Amino acid sequence: MTKKPRILVVDDEAAMRESLKDWLKEDGYEVGLAAGGKEAIAMAEEKNWEVVLLDLKMPGMDGLEALKRLKEVIPEAEVLMMTAYATVDTAVQAMKEGAFDYLVKPFDPEEIELQIKKIVAHKELVLENILLRKKLEERYQFDEIIGKSDAMQEVFELISRVAATDSTVLITGESGTGKELIAQAIHGNSSRCYMPFIAVSCGALPDSLYMPFIAVSCGALPDSLLESELFGYEKGAFTGAEHTKKGRFEMADRGTLFLDEIGDISLKTQVDLLRVLQQKEFGRLGGEKMIKSWPRPIVI
Fold first, then answer.
1. Which residues contact 296 (CB under 8 A, 6 or more apart)?
2. Cis before residue 106, ω within 30 degrees of 0?
3. Which end of the chain has fewer CB atoms at under 10 Å, N or C?
4. Residue range 215-253, pLDDT digits in tens
5. pLDDT value at position 102?
6. SS3 for 181?
7. Which of 2.40.30.10, 3.40.50.1010, 3.40.50.620, 3.40.50.300 is the CATH number of 150-299?
8. Within this chain, domains 7-136 and 150-299 share the same CATH topology
């Protein structure tokens, strides 16, 4: 935030309101004063206050009720509850209703300033997160796929329709036609876009290179090694299994698992994969527990 937030002070005690106003104005804040919940709500309807200092105990509408109503009118505002009767129950209830924090009376200007700085930092972090998400969404549009023909426009439309579902997708086409780009576009335009995209092409990458996008080729490894890559294994499952390891299905939990060249793997492993697709669960090698970690597989 480049400018200081507007602050609304809500307290039935005139002396407290005026003291807070003087403290805050000294620090350069724009300050509004309300003697109760109803007046605060009316002021919130006229101006978008960014921080509210709200007394808990007030005649008529109390602080918790005022908090609920204010959150309806100015949901983006952060509310600091003020009370001389702080208890764990009231603090918990205030937090549940959306309060940022609470101050116990009497307090000094430094406490208020510290809390306001926390609120400003929190808002800046939220804004930064929103901007990063927008950049990420822009990154995952169709910019990487070149094509203006009617046929490509149909492909883009199909990607948009498929991305909105949780269905398993079969992508077919000759080598070099961009099947992996299509898989990435489906993932990037789906609600899973912030979760992992794991591409399995067995044997291409060592463990030390595991990243959010991982490529491995289903046909380069023997069945036992491929199954351990896909499903993981428990410690002691076989010679050399010195620790428990997650498989690619588990790593892609809530994301997308891209199985490259699935037609090259053995019939036995294909049957195992079919069981996972049907039952939506799997077990690590050497383990009895079934795991319900479930990505959306995209299969070539």
1. 166, 167, 168, 169, 190, 192, 255, 256, 257
2. yes
3. N
4. 444 444 456 677 788 888 888 877 777 888 888 888 888
5. 83
6. helix
7. 3.40.50.300
8. yes
**Overall fold of domain 7-136:** Rossmann fold (3.40.50)
Q: Which of 126-135, 170-179, 206-215, 250-259 has the lowest mean pLDDT?
A: 206-215
Of 108, 100, 131, 129, which Cα lies nearest the Cα of 5?
100
75 in Cβ contact with 32 (< 8 Å) = no
C-alpha neighbours within 13 Å on the C-beta side of residue 108 = 1
pTM (two decimals): 0.46
Contacts 24+ apart (CB under 8 A), 154-162: 155/182, 159/185, 159/186, 159/189, 160/189, 162/186
Q: Where are the domains of the chain?
A: 7-136, 150-299
